[in-house]
Amino acid sequence: MASHSASLPTAQSSPLSFLDIPLSLPFSLSAVTTPNIWASIALIVLSLLVLEQTVWRTKRKFLPGDTWTIPVIGQFVNSLYPSLENYQKQWALGPLSATSVFNIFIVIASANELTRKIFNSGAYAEPMLVAAARPILMEDNWVFLNGKVHIEYRRMLNQFFTRKSLSLYLGLQDTIAREHFAFWLKDSSKEAQSVMTPMRYFNMATSLRVFCGRYIDPEQAKLISDKYWLITKALELVNFPLHLPGTKVYNAIQARKVAMVFLLKAARESKVHMRAGGEPGCFMDAWCQEMFATGKEFSEKEMAQVVLAFLFASQDAMSSGLIYAFQHLADHPAVLAKVREEQERIRGGDFDRPITLEELDACTYLRATVKESLRLKPPVLMVPYKVTQPFPISPDYTVPAGSMVVPSVYPSCHDPSVYPSPSSFLPERWLDPNGTAEQNPKNYLIFGAGAHRCIGYEYALMHIAMVIGTASGLMDWEHKKTEDSEKVEIIATIFPKDGCLLKFTPRKRS
Ligand code: HEM
Q: Which ligand 1 atom sits nearest the alpha carbon of residue 449?
């Protein structure tokens, strides 16, 4: 996204001043009176360009943003290289500001109440995820439902995120975590290394075990994880509109096809296992059990698509959340010491068995640490919504139908009146029930809000807490800081620009 000057339209740049432009161009209106095809084409192009600027200025009205939009592509080039700094410049323009990419008119909200209003305005706007989501996830994926049918479908899925289900998943998560910790420790004699790829693989392996059980083996999980990177790379706010071979969206669609082969196989095997009276060992099994009990059957394709949507929504956000949790704890040894002390106490010093959900509930300091880590570096900075009908977002501005409207999570989570010293990592701010952080839950928009609020948020919080808590008991880790450690790279979600260089060693326990 571009940096923009905060200037409002002036007398010189009033909506009508573009009418002067044609007179200064190297051909005149008389050209169309002669049968000169090139002059006619030039005139048509010019008229379209003038129309484009008129539309831009009419839609933008008084919102801060570019005075003129770049013809045809708008801020496309900037959107290819998103940066937190440029987003911050955009948010600083005002509570609402405007930009455009490929003639998509975009209104960005930075104020908490406007951001919440968008999340809660199902009558006017619906999530777009990102522009490439539909071709990647397929049009008939449940995640694109809205209104009543969406609520109904979510209600059905919600029963697999209850405490009973979370307890089932916790044991699976623990097994995968220990396998991956052991793998990371094999490199303990080596220099600190970027954890981007290992953490993404760890996360994919966990998700696939939780959602698909043992129907997907570790090698298949590795293949899906590698292919999934092509999907991540296509998750830009706006993509090149044609999905031609070689484009990012085309590559992502090919990657999805590979993932779907394994997800379909898992759904098929889960149905067979549960029909034969097997015990549920993962999300798909729990779903099949419910299906057979209620007689409401879902196809294997539908089950695979739901898991695909879960992977799509979680892989980057969870990887970001985990990486920053490890980085923050390494950089704040006093916080890590408190996390460890609490873990030792609550687990009775026994790190060889999985933590239970009840024990995790009791880990007040660990949960505050996870919450603070996500606040400081919210994985999802913004969530694009599509305006379905004119949206009166403020008393004096209505976002036109067909526009994109973007609630911004980051400014709400860095509001200094709610989170004093917003750039500091202070888990303690969550320990005082009367403190501003706990008193303003409406600012904590890490998982969105409203009808489309993240369905996996409790699972996500539980997972990061379990991983960090268990890691703190079993391992030490050192963070090799570089000048890029605090800089943010945006690859769908946010990551440390240097990839977070960590060295894991076994923790000596008495
Ligand atoms: C730290 C990790 C995560 C973060 C920061 C995160 C964040 C978000 C955000 C911001 C939204 C948009 C909400 C809105 O429009 O109001 C969302 C939606 C969603 N998330 Fe997550 N998420 C995380 C993990 C997960 C996990 C583990 C799952 C797996 C189940 C998941 C599944 C979904 C789904 C399916 C949606 C769309 C829900 C709907 O449209 O009804 N997310 N998430």
A: 16
